[in-house]
Structure prediction request, 256 residues.
Amino acid sequence: MVDSGGRLVPTGGRFTDRRVVVTGAARGIGAEIARQFASAGARVAILDQLVDEAQLLADDLGGIAIDCDLLDAGSTTEAMDVAIAALGGIDVLVNNAGVFRITPLLDISTDEWDWVFAVNVRAILVTTQIGARAMIAQATGGKIVNMASMGGKVGAAGQAHYAASKAAVISLTQVAAAELGIHGINVNSICPGFVLTEMGAATRTPEQVEEWSSRSPLGRLAEPSDVAAMALFLASHDADYCTGQAMNVTGGMITH
Prediction:
């Protein structure tokens, strides 16, 4: 429910008092993930470099916003430490943040390649190490959800660095699941297809939306809420026996 000040007030739910950290949650899919967790009773920390937008959302959700530059391992470490301290621990980590750029294979510079991998992969390593250590110290288990992509399973022209980075996220997820399971920590990834975020909708023509939608047996693109719902499932007790998986949210565009 929403209070008189327009802020979301948790009404109780499956994540009541769970402590959740979401990266890249100032807008788009990450913001929707944060909203759904807060609506289900969680206390949410938003890590994002878009400080003003992150703070506005955190104020609405009764959560906290922390400035975080995922290109900088030091900034990422500090932000994670601040978030965990502010929440009094961590139960769920959602590594949602990522970057995307279309560049022909022969034109990708090593700097651009490193930029994509730094944000999409290395940052997940850093946050996972910090989050997992805290979960282990708590001895209460935990859930880690990583945002991969359909592109990590089926590469597309112009996306060599992006697709390779998302394939790396899937592999990192599998290794983390194998190593952290003994501590009661589940690690899974999500592979969205085409998602119609607010920013994406403003830059895509109706013809593009129609063509992409036709690739799905369901005849539509994903909404941020479709991806957020999968994140909440993987973070819930309903997925306690699910780990090391790369879950498709593609509307049937790919099925493996």
